[in-house]
What we know:
By secondary structure, this protein is mainly alpha-helical. It is built from 4 helices and no strands. The protein has helices at residues 7-20, 25-32, 36-44, 52-71. The protein is globular and about 35 Å long. The N and C termini lie far apart (37 Å).
Amino acid sequence: MSRELPIAEQVAGMIGEIRRHGLGPAAIARESGLSRQSIWRLEAGESRAPSADTVERLERLRDRVSATKDRSH
């Protein structure tokens, strides 16, 4: 039986994925339109229930950096 990860863990994983593409917390904040403090809290798991808007912003950024990386290979 498969269980989906809690949203806070999914978001922390997304931020980790974005960081693996070379963006640090300040760049992630700038590119996503979120505050640096929010990025740090999300990554640390301190924010248990991020808003749908926050999740969407990070998903768009993840998709953008992934697409950029794919095109560079």
